[in-house]
């Protein structure tokens, strides 16, 4: 290569790197998991990348793992269980949405390894929120560590406009590099 080609290559590389960081910073945010409420999916200290390009509620689906503003000081990471217009209930450690059983495959191993106590205590949405259905533009969320999670059973529904985004990948520790929450 001639000398001037090195400069062209360098300029192209710098421009590409700059574009990558600009796009990345506008579409993704980095978060650190704080606490045990999402174990065994996410652990205390995990670093994760959150896709902030969730511009409408239809882009969020049941069992997505999301980050939301729980208060002015705190953001929480939880799993979406109920969507607008749905009724949620747990009976005998089984999820029922609008009266229909829905399997929670991501908890199957934990259920098999659990002692006799259920992972999720029985409840109806009316009992824990005072509402029969998830309101429009709101979500019902739970932590995967059901016995140790401050979630919709305690804090109520999550307004969609408080959602930061969906967890796309974890990148620390390295054993979980690019792992997507199941």
Give your account of this protein's structure:
The strands form two sheets. A seven-stranded antiparallel β-sheet has the order 1-2-11-3-4-9-10. The protein has a four-stranded antiparallel β-sheet with strand order 7-6-5-8. It has four helices and eleven strands. By secondary structure, the chain is an alpha+beta fold. Strand 5 (88-91) and strand 6 form a beta hairpin. It has one domain (29-176): Umud Fragment, subunit A, CATH 2.10.109.10.
Judging by the overall fold, what is the CATH architecture?
A: Ribbon
**CATH fold node name:** Umud Fragment, subunit A
Question: What portion of residues is helical?
Answer: 10-25%
* CATH level-4 homologous superfamily: Umud Fragment, subunit A
Question: Key terms for this structure?
Answer:
182 residues; alpha+beta; Umud Fragment, subunit A; 7-stranded antiparallel β-sheet; 4-stranded antiparallel β-sheet; 4 helices; 11 strands; 22% helix; 29% strand
In summary, what is this structure?
The chain is of the alpha+beta class.
Question: What is this structure's SSE topology?
Answer:
Blueprint: H1 3-27, E1 28-32, E2 47-51, E3 65-69, E4 75-82, E5 88-91, E6 94-97, E7 100-102, H2 108-113, E8 123-124, H3 125-129, E9 138-142, H4 152-155, E10 158-159, E11 163-172
Antiparallel strand pairs: 1-2, 2-11, 3-4, 3-11, 4-9, 5-6, 5-8, 6-7, 9-10
């Amino acid at each position: 290569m001639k000398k001037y080609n090195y400069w062209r290559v360098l300029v192209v590389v710098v421009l590409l790197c700059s574009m990558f960081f600009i796009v990345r910073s506008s579409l993704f945010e980095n978060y650190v998991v704080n606490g045990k409420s999402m174990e065994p999916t996410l652990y205390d200290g995990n670093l994760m990348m959150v896709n902030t390009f969730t511009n409408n509620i239809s882009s969020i689906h049941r069992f997505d793992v999301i980050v939301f503003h729980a208060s002015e000081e705190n953001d929480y990471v939880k799993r979406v269980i109920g969507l607008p217009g749905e009724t949620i209930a747990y009976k005998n450690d089984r999820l029922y949405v609008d009266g229909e059983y829905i399997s929670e495959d991501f908890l199957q191993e934990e259920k098999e390894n659990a002692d006799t106590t259920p992972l999720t205590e029985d409840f109806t949405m009316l009992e824990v929120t005072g509402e029969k259905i998830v309101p429009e533009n709101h979500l019902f969320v739970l932590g995967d560590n059901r016995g140790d999670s401050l979630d919709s059973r305690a804090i109520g529904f999550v307004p969609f406009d408080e959602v930061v985004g969906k967890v796309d990948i974890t990148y620390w520790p390295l054993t979980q590099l690019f792992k997507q929450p199941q």
